[in-house]
Amino acid sequence: MHTASRVEDGDRSPRPIGQPARVPTRRLLPEPLRDRAFRGTDVVRRGLLTPAQLRGPACRRLYRDVYVDARAPDSHRLRARAAARLLLPGAVVSGLSAAVLWGVGLADERDDVELVLPPGTHPRRIPGIRVRRVPLDPADVRVLDRVRVSSPAVATVRAAALLEPDEAVVAIDRMVAAGVVDLRALRARAATRGAAPARVRRACTRADGLAESPQETRLRLLMVDGGLPTPVAQYVVRHEGRDVARVDFAWPELRIAVEYDGAWHAEPGQFARDRRRLDRLQAAGWTVVFVTAADLHHPVQLLATLREALHR
């Protein structure tokens, strides 16, 4: 049999012609370093890796002297934890980064990690990290898996202060919907003298915590800011003593519902379920207006469609 040679992790045994070559597998790190971030100087000192191995394909550099197992997916959570635990020990993760650690994805791997250090600490400029030097009340600091992080309320206020007005409301709605903060308590905190800037207080009053997606919040704000009557969010339609459906927004007295039609509607079998649900709503005398992501890019046209439905 004719053969062709291959090289795979040092294996030079022949393989039959026509058999596809196997892709070389990335060498694994020692067990203590797998799927985690670590200090390069520390692991070299302990003899776990050599400087050459740090620069090899098994490791990925996050910050100066901070590396991670190259198999670990990049994420803001990974970067925030590495920065707070290894690069600036004792720092508190705050703002959008803290929201991520609380389970709400307000930032991704492209965004800078925000950390808080006490006033007077030596200034350091580190690419990919935003360091604030402000006092934090110890009562507003929590520890999550060995990382110090600002409390949910403080994280939400800070996140809202960083974002544009509508996106601040989106962020608050997401934190509330995730069960991370209580909207009433957040409003009370924001109203406390000196606790939050005016734009955050306004964002708290505009949030309702009921949206099941960021797009639902954006749609609600568009309708309200566009001069439409304020709809009831997450309204349960009842007919002949039975629950028919829960709709995203409703004007119950007019029997008009607005539904945000997200990508999840394309899931297998979802079309048939949506069709049956729509039939039940129509049988109960309701008109349903569907809104897509594309519609949100044409607010004037969308508002005109909704006004027409309201005035039929």
TrEMBL record:
Residues 247-290 form the DUF559 domain. Residues 1-14 have a biased composition (Basic and acidic residues). InterPro entries: DUF559, Restrct_endonuc-II-like. Residues 1-26 are annotated as: Disordered. Pfam families: DUF559. Gene3D superfamilies: VSR Endonuclease. SUPFAM superfamilies: Restriction endonuclease-like. Signal peptide: none annotated. This is DUF559 domain-containing protein. It comes from Geodermatophilus obscurus.
